[in-house]
Amino acid sequence: IMDPYVPPEGDARLSSLSKDGVKQQMQKLRQTAASQLAYKGGICEGKPEIWGGKWRFVGGKDGNLWREAGMCGRKRGSGFNKQKLHSLVTERCYPDMVRGNRYKTIRWRFVESLEPPRVVHVRCDSIMNRGNLYGQVTVRMHSRQILAIYDRFGRLMYGGEEIPKDVLEYVVFERYLVNPYGTWRMHGKIIPEWAPPKDPIIK
Hints:
This is Large ribosomal subunit protein mL45. The chain is α+β, with helices and mostly antiparallel strands.
Protein backbone atom coordinates (compact mmCIF):
# COMPACT_ATOMS: atom_id res chain seq x y z
CA ILE A 1 0.00 0.00 0.00
CA MET A 2 1.63 3.26 -1.11
CA ASP A 3 1.47 6.01 1.50
CA PRO A 4 -1.04 4.25 3.83
CA TYR A 5 -3.91 6.32 5.22
CA VAL A 6 -3.64 7.06 8.96
CA PRO A 7 -7.15 6.83 10.46
CA PRO A 8 -7.86 9.43 13.16
CA GLU A 9 -8.03 8.01 16.68
CA GLY A 10 -11.56 7.51 17.96
CA ASP A 11 -13.10 7.65 14.48
CA ALA A 12 -16.88 7.06 14.55
CA ARG A 13 -16.91 7.87 18.28
CA LEU A 14 -15.69 11.47 18.68
CA SER A 15 -17.97 14.47 18.37
CA SER A 16 -16.88 17.09 15.83
CA LEU A 17 -17.51 19.73 18.54
CA SER A 18 -14.94 18.31 21.00
CA LYS A 19 -11.28 19.41 21.10
CA ASP A 20 -10.05 16.07 19.68
CA GLY A 21 -12.80 16.21 17.08
CA VAL A 22 -11.55 19.61 15.83
CA LYS A 23 -7.97 18.21 15.59
CA GLN A 24 -9.35 15.34 13.50
CA GLN A 25 -11.05 17.77 11.12
CA MET A 26 -7.75 19.67 10.57
CA GLN A 27 -5.84 16.45 9.88
CA LYS A 28 -8.58 15.36 7.51
CA LEU A 29 -8.25 18.62 5.54
CA ARG A 30 -4.50 18.06 5.08
CA GLN A 31 -5.01 14.48 3.86
CA THR A 32 -7.80 15.58 1.51
CA ALA A 33 -5.49 18.13 -0.14
CA ALA A 34 -2.93 15.41 -0.96
CA SER A 35 -5.70 13.13 -2.26
CA GLN A 36 -7.05 15.84 -4.56
CA LEU A 37 -3.57 16.32 -6.04
CA ALA A 38 -3.36 12.58 -6.82
CA TYR A 39 -6.89 12.67 -8.23
CA LYS A 40 -6.12 15.57 -10.56
CA GLY A 41 -2.77 14.01 -11.46
CA GLY A 42 -4.37 11.29 -13.52
CA ILE A 43 -5.98 8.63 -11.33
CA CYS A 44 -9.49 9.62 -12.29
CA GLU A 45 -9.05 12.11 -15.10
CA GLY A 46 -12.28 12.85 -16.92
CA LYS A 47 -14.44 11.10 -14.31
CA PRO A 48 -15.70 13.78 -11.91
CA GLU A 49 -18.16 11.41 -10.21
CA ILE A 50 -15.24 9.56 -8.60
CA TRP A 51 -14.19 12.25 -6.16
CA GLY A 52 -16.34 13.74 -3.40
CA GLY A 53 -16.54 10.60 -1.29
CA LYS A 54 -18.63 8.69 -3.83
CA TRP A 55 -18.31 4.93 -3.95
CA ARG A 56 -19.70 4.36 -7.44
CA PHE A 57 -16.37 3.82 -9.22
CA VAL A 58 -15.22 0.89 -7.10
CA GLY A 59 -18.25 -1.29 -7.59
CA GLY A 60 -21.62 0.36 -7.28
CA LYS A 61 -23.01 2.88 -4.81
CA ASP A 62 -23.46 0.27 -2.09
CA GLY A 63 -20.03 -1.36 -2.34
CA ASN A 64 -20.92 -4.50 -4.31
CA LEU A 65 -17.29 -5.38 -5.04
CA TRP A 66 -16.30 -5.36 -1.35
CA ARG A 67 -19.37 -7.42 -0.44
CA GLU A 68 -18.79 -9.97 -3.23
CA ALA A 69 -15.13 -10.38 -2.25
CA GLY A 70 -16.22 -10.89 1.36
CA MET A 71 -18.74 -13.55 0.43
CA CYS A 72 -16.32 -15.27 -1.96
CA GLY A 73 -13.35 -15.31 0.40
CA ARG A 74 -15.35 -16.65 3.33
CA LYS A 75 -16.79 -19.69 1.58
CA ARG A 76 -15.04 -23.04 1.62
CA GLY A 77 -15.77 -26.38 -0.01
CA SER A 78 -18.19 -26.39 -2.96
CA GLY A 79 -19.10 -22.70 -2.50
CA PHE A 80 -15.50 -21.45 -2.88
CA ASN A 81 -14.81 -19.88 -6.30
CA LYS A 82 -11.06 -19.32 -6.65
CA GLN A 83 -11.25 -17.70 -10.12
CA LYS A 84 -13.93 -15.22 -9.09
CA LEU A 85 -12.01 -14.24 -5.97
CA HIS A 86 -8.86 -13.59 -8.06
CA SER A 87 -10.90 -11.21 -10.27
CA LEU A 88 -12.10 -9.26 -7.19
CA VAL A 89 -8.88 -9.03 -5.15
CA THR A 90 -5.20 -8.37 -5.97
CA GLU A 91 -2.35 -10.89 -5.67
CA ARG A 92 -1.31 -9.22 -2.40
CA CYS A 93 -4.78 -9.52 -0.84
CA TYR A 94 -5.60 -13.10 -1.94
CA PRO A 95 -3.34 -14.97 0.55
CA ASP A 96 -4.63 -12.81 3.43
CA MET A 97 -8.22 -13.76 2.60
CA VAL A 98 -7.74 -17.51 2.31
CA ARG A 99 -4.92 -18.20 4.81
CA GLY A 100 -6.01 -20.45 7.68
CA ASN A 101 -9.49 -21.11 6.24
CA ARG A 102 -8.90 -24.76 5.36
CA TYR A 103 -11.15 -27.26 7.20
CA LYS A 104 -13.19 -24.39 8.67
CA THR A 105 -16.79 -23.36 8.04
CA ILE A 106 -17.11 -19.57 7.81
CA ARG A 107 -20.49 -17.88 7.86
CA TRP A 108 -20.33 -14.16 7.05
CA ARG A 109 -23.22 -11.84 6.30
CA PHE A 110 -23.47 -8.13 5.61
CA VAL A 111 -26.45 -6.75 7.57
CA GLU A 112 -26.52 -2.98 6.85
CA SER A 113 -24.45 0.17 6.35
CA LEU A 114 -24.37 2.41 9.43
CA GLU A 115 -22.84 5.26 7.36
CA PRO A 116 -22.44 5.58 3.59
CA PRO A 117 -19.01 4.32 2.41
CA ARG A 118 -16.66 7.29 1.87
CA VAL A 119 -13.41 7.71 -0.08
CA VAL A 120 -10.89 9.12 2.42
CA HIS A 121 -7.56 8.73 0.60
CA VAL A 122 -6.47 8.73 -3.06
CA ARG A 123 -2.95 8.00 -4.29
CA CYS A 124 -1.43 7.59 -7.75
CA ASP A 125 2.16 6.42 -8.33
CA SER A 126 4.34 4.64 -10.86
CA ILE A 127 6.02 1.35 -10.00
CA MET A 128 9.28 0.13 -11.64
CA ASN A 129 9.16 2.83 -14.36
CA ARG A 130 7.39 6.15 -14.96
CA GLY A 131 4.73 4.81 -17.32
CA ASN A 132 3.63 1.98 -15.04
CA LEU A 133 0.86 3.82 -13.18
CA TYR A 134 -1.20 2.38 -10.33
CA GLY A 135 -4.04 4.10 -8.50
CA GLN A 136 -5.12 3.33 -4.94
CA VAL A 137 -8.13 4.56 -3.00
CA THR A 138 -8.93 3.98 0.67
CA VAL A 139 -12.65 3.67 1.45
CA ARG A 140 -13.97 4.10 4.99
CA MET A 141 -16.77 1.61 5.69
CA HIS A 142 -18.88 1.58 8.83
CA SER A 143 -21.26 -1.37 8.70
CA ARG A 144 -23.01 -4.06 10.71
CA GLN A 145 -21.91 -7.64 10.00
CA ILE A 146 -22.34 -11.19 11.27
CA LEU A 147 -19.34 -13.54 11.41
CA ALA A 148 -19.16 -17.05 12.81
CA ILE A 149 -16.24 -19.48 12.35
CA TYR A 150 -16.62 -23.20 13.07
CA ASP A 151 -13.82 -25.79 13.20
CA ARG A 152 -13.87 -29.02 11.15
CA PHE A 153 -16.02 -30.72 13.80
CA GLY A 154 -18.67 -27.98 13.70
CA ARG A 155 -17.70 -26.38 17.01
CA LEU A 156 -17.91 -22.59 17.24
CA MET A 157 -14.42 -21.02 17.33
CA TYR A 158 -15.14 -17.32 16.87
CA GLY A 159 -18.06 -14.89 16.75
CA GLY A 160 -21.66 -16.00 16.47
CA GLU A 161 -24.60 -15.99 14.06
CA GLU A 162 -27.10 -14.38 16.45
CA ILE A 163 -25.54 -11.02 17.37
CA PRO A 164 -24.44 -8.62 14.60
CA LYS A 165 -21.36 -6.46 15.27
CA ASP A 166 -20.60 -2.87 14.27
CA VAL A 167 -17.41 -2.89 12.18
CA LEU A 168 -15.34 0.13 11.09
CA GLU A 169 -12.97 -0.74 8.22
CA TYR A 170 -10.55 1.13 5.97
CA VAL A 171 -10.38 -0.88 2.74
CA VAL A 172 -7.78 -0.15 0.03
CA PHE A 173 -8.69 -0.74 -3.63
CA GLU A 174 -6.19 -0.74 -6.49
CA ARG A 175 -6.34 -0.36 -10.26
CA TYR A 176 -3.69 -0.62 -12.98
CA LEU A 177 -4.33 2.69 -14.72
CA VAL A 178 -2.41 1.96 -17.94
CA ASN A 179 -4.94 -0.70 -18.93
CA PRO A 180 -8.15 1.07 -20.13
CA TYR A 181 -10.16 -2.08 -19.36
CA GLY A 182 -8.61 -2.56 -15.91
CA THR A 183 -10.93 -2.86 -12.94
CA TRP A 184 -10.70 -1.81 -9.29
CA ARG A 185 -9.80 -4.71 -7.02
CA MET A 186 -9.57 -5.03 -3.27
CA HIS A 187 -5.90 -4.67 -2.24
CA GLY A 188 -5.87 -4.75 1.57
CA LYS A 189 -7.08 -3.22 4.81
CA ILE A 190 -5.57 -0.60 7.08
CA ILE A 191 -5.81 -1.57 10.74
CA PRO A 192 -5.17 1.47 12.98
CA GLU A 193 -2.95 1.14 16.05
CA TRP A 194 -5.82 2.25 18.30
CA ALA A 195 -8.20 -0.46 17.01
CA PRO A 196 -9.56 -2.65 19.86
CA PRO A 197 -8.06 -6.18 19.97
CA LYS A 198 -10.02 -9.01 18.37
CA ASP A 199 -12.02 -11.38 20.56
CA PRO A 200 -10.03 -14.51 21.55
CA ILE A 201 -10.72 -17.81 19.77
CA ILE A 202 -13.00 -20.13 21.77
CA LYS A 203 -11.05 -23.28 22.68
